[in-house]
Amino acid sequence: MEVQDEVAGDGCELTFIIDGVITLPIALYGFLIFPDLPATTKAFYLTTEERELAYTRVENDLQVNRQPLSWGLARRVLTRWRCCSYDRCAKFAISGETESFGSNNLMGQWLKAIGGYTVEQIDFYPSGATAVAIASTLICATWTDYTGKRWAVLVYMCVACIIAAICILVWSSPTGLKFFAYYIASASYAGQATTFAWANRICADDDQERAIVLASMNMWNNAINAWWPLLFYKATDAPRFTKGMIAMICVSVATLGVTWLVWYLEKREKAKAKLLRDSQEDENEK
Length: 286
Prior knowledge:
75% of the residues lie in helices and 0% in strands. The protein contains 15 helices and no strands. Helix 10 (151-169) runs antiparallel to helix 11 (175-184). The N and C termini lie far apart (88 Å).
């Protein structure tokens, strides 16, 4: 037993070392290659003419010349519906908790608790959930970029998580159905890319507001993640995680509600902008 623990410990240490080494060239690549913003770029592979072209191409579409930080900026950003729906309503903080199945390795804990599976199987079977997460993210990101319909991905994610939670709550359900539940719950990972893309598009006309909204989404999600698993997904609750399953259903329903709110407010804003453009065109014609 001690030999097994020692070997397992060495394997975990080696895994962390490999993961760390892999990230170093990626970090170096990003530091050297990412060009920064058109107004501030110092990328060595761009000529002066290319930098000026990049700047002028976005000058009419984005707020390139930023205003200094001030109470006026805070008031402008924090009182608009965009920040209220995405930040203070904590859309990503709420929807981010739908990833709790995977981030807390509930399937691995479940397999270990019910017994009958080898260490290799306990490590290997949850990889199917990772595969579903990758496939869902790629397919949904491609589809939503093509159609522009962000809300549909969040509906898919929430419905999958609700079904998964119900299947696990009904403890008499077959083992195969629980496998299915843990796998489809990984559809939740498709929501992250969609949520950030949606926020980017909504705030595209104000890069300072966009920066604040995106940073706040991350901040609220990390703040909630600090205590959420301790409350709803404690190891002592394995294998049923009854509180966690109920919390998952509640979070998914809340995400559906906020998704509808954002969709409605964005649609209303676009309608107002269209009316304003039409009225301005009529005045110009006169």
